[in-house]
Design goal:
Helix 2 (74-83) packs across helix 5 (134-143) and helix 3 crosses helix 6 (164-187). The protein has helices spanning 3-18, 74-83, 96-103, 115-119, 134-143, 164-187, 195-209; strands spanning 28-33, 36-39, 55-58, 63-65, 89-93, 125-126, 149-152, 156-161. By secondary structure, it is α+β, with helices and mostly antiparallel strands. The protein has a single domain (3-209), classed as Class II aldolase/adducin N-terminal domain (L-fuculose-1-phosphate Aldolase), CATH 3.40.225. The chain contains seven helices and eight strands; from the N terminus they run H-E-E-E-E-H-E-H-H-E-H-E-E-H-H. A hairpin with a 4-residue loop joins strand 3 (55-58) and strand 4. The structure holds zinc ion. Zinc ion is lined by residues 26-27, 73, 92, 94, 131, 155-156.
Length: 211
């Protein structure tokens, strides 16, 4: 079932590992197709993961196809899909610079021209809740409002997209921006883009995300 999407999920998962955005079995990836969600399994190292390990669940979290339990962050994925029509794929990573900012609970401001058009504006840090809980799911949805990315307090980062390719490229963009911002913070006081420019650039995101 959904073999092509399982292949895409596997590919993105392995690429996250190669790029050092996750280690072991941390982080998770999913894509929505109608009332089904194709998602990475829980506790399977990415290096050993195969296409047959990818799970298909419904929007209530029941396994429709697969022999392993779905990701421990399934509640967060489902909560996002239920609340965001513009989310058709989710990439949750533990990439280092995004997690570092999330650890000091510092939002990523709009420091370059790519952030607002692709991610919607300043990227908030969701309120802390323990990994795997429905509290985390609610906090993430709240902080993700009007954005394609969110930092998870003391945990990691999460990006959505209309396709898995878009969600992954948003995750790469977010990590890069968090890296630049972290380095800039250590060297001095980063300048932010002028508010009128941010507003104009955020319009590009708004137009792409409202139907
Ligand atoms: Zn995580």
């Amino acid at each position: 079932m959904h073999e092509n999407l399982k292949g895409e999920v596997l590919n993105v998962s392995k690429t996250m590992l190669e790029r050092g955005m996750v280690i072991g079995s941390s982080g998770n990836v999913s894509v929505r197709k109608g009332d089904h969600v194709v998602v990475t399994p829980s506790s399977v190292p990415y290096s050993e993961m195969e296409q047959e390990d990818i799970i298909v669940i419904d929007l209530e979290g029941e396994v429709v196809d697969g022999h392993l339990p779905p990701s421990t962050e399934t509640a967060t994925h489902l909560e996002i899909y239920k609340n965001r029509d513009d989310a058709k794929a989710i990439v949750h990573s533990h990439s280092v610079y995004a997690t570092a900012l999330a650890t000091i609970r510092k939002p990523l401001p709009v420091i370059s021209d790519e952030i607002a058009p692709y991610l919607g504006g300043e990227i908030r840090v969701s309120e802390y809740a323990m990994a795997g809980t429905t509290y985390l799911a609610k906090n993430v949805v709240k902080a993700l409002e009007g954005r394609s990315a969110v930092l998870l307090a003391s945990h990691g980062a999460l990006c959505i997209g209309k396709t898995l390719k878009e969600a992954f490229s948003n995750a790469v963009l977010l990590e890069r921006a968090c890296q630049v911002y972290s380095i800039a913070l250590g060297a001095g006081e980063p300048h932010l883009l002028p508010p009128d420019v941010v507003e104009e650039e955020a319009e590009i995101w708004n137009e792409a995300h409202t139907e």
